[in-house]
């Protein structure tokens, strides 16, 4: 049986590399030993090698399930260049080409076969799978199985069944770049990974300086104008929430002597590609864009990414901000935000029209999930902890993250003591657990953050009086002198810091987190960021 030394030799022989990158060795080692694996690494960190090396060492064929039909030919060509024979079957081929590829794979004439998840469901492929000698099933972009993410793809739900129908279960290895705890659990459960080796690595981008600034819309604008003027020769991307804002801001920057183009999905395709080309070729320095910009854009010398508005999840933020500094040189990622950004995002979730095709209950569940993602994002805006650490912890990276530069570690904020609010919140969670009976399976019942705010502020809503006597909770009305926003901020921060957790379920509920006991200690203190910072103070360069 091949082991990790064989893997290292194969790394050198087929790919020309001497060392594995972080995370690759444990994953490859597990696969070679016959154990399932889940690799979570950002794009470009080296996931493909984790199944390509076992593919040349294991007995039998490696089937790679990938949603990216348009990239399959490239992936196959890349492997062929390295001397690894691979084929693909997809809808771009004629039926004859498809049969030829499958025949080659069945006869063991190639090492790797790429297919899209939709194909698993066809009778032809089922017949193939029943007769081929498949040693490894690798699932690329495995987060598509989860409805928690943005890229849910129903066909991924069929993978588990497909595996169950195979006459001999192969080793199964799933890979993804975007996986929070919840998505990871979904992958393990829905694909049916068996005690997998899980490896989460490579999320920290040490050359990026992270900066969070709360500012009014006017102050945001001024900050950006100043920053762009002071960094005139550098390439930068400025993300705005709406098409109108991108146009107005690009005009404004140009009027002040900068060279900026705007980019959004409402522009004619020629204009979009012209803007993109001008930016990639350094003919203009700044692109002011909506989130439509960035997919497949390969520009390594982006020195800064500024967000004029807060995105709706850390996943989205990190993907966009991560377009800075691909060349490894110091670059800056600044997030400008204000309370209105949060309200806009909340309103957007409340009114989402794509939910129209779902049942009312399912639509509410989707909304509840989006709100949890949004809480992760607002937690980033408000945290007083290291921003690098916040991000790596969000993605579930377990190793120690050492800050390589962020505005929180530079101490660019003042704090407010919110110990009394935090204690009251903690007691309120306790009250709720006492008042509500546990579920039938013994798991605790709880309430969402909005209800906790209502109880603490002594809301007079009928529900408070009628339902389980919430108004009899000892903490009912304890924080009636505080605003809902203040209490909500503290709850978000308590979740971000691990005093509370949001538990999975159809509706997210707030329960005690691993650090909850600290809130009853006599010396417990909690502070949060005082969020008003003069906008001018941060316009100096990173
Ligand atoms: P991902 O699938 O995670 O996006 P890839 O597998 O495409 O990433 O790898 C990204 C790049 O890194 C590729 O050019 C690959 O050859 C290279 N790479 C992967 N592993 C190593 C390694 N151990 N040493 C050096 N380069 C590596």
UniProtKB/TrEMBL annotation:
Mind naming one GO cellular-component term on file for this protein?
replisome
Q: Which GO BP terms apply?
A: DNA recombination; DNA repair; DNA replication
Residue span(s) of domain Helicase ATP-binding: 28-197
Q: What is its EC number?
A: 5.6.2.4
Q: Which domain of life is it from?
A: Bacteria
Task: Recall the GO molecular function terms of this protein's record.
Answer: 3'-5' DNA helicase activity; ATP binding; DNA binding; four-way junction helicase activity; hydrolase activity; metal ion binding
Keyword annotations for this protein, in alphabetical order, are: ATP-binding, DNA damage, DNA repair, DNA-binding, Helicase, Hydrolase, Isomerase, Metal-binding, Nucleotide-binding
Q: Which residues form the Helicase C-terminal domain?
A: 223-370
Quote the catalytic activity from the record.
Couples ATP hydrolysis with the unwinding of duplex DNA by translocating in the 3'-5' direction
* Cofactors (names): Mg(2+); Zn(2+)
EC class:
isomerase
Family indicated by similarity: Belongs to the helicase family. RecQ subfamily.
Tell me what this protein is called.
ATP-dependent DNA helicase RecQ
Native organism: Bifidobacterium simiarum
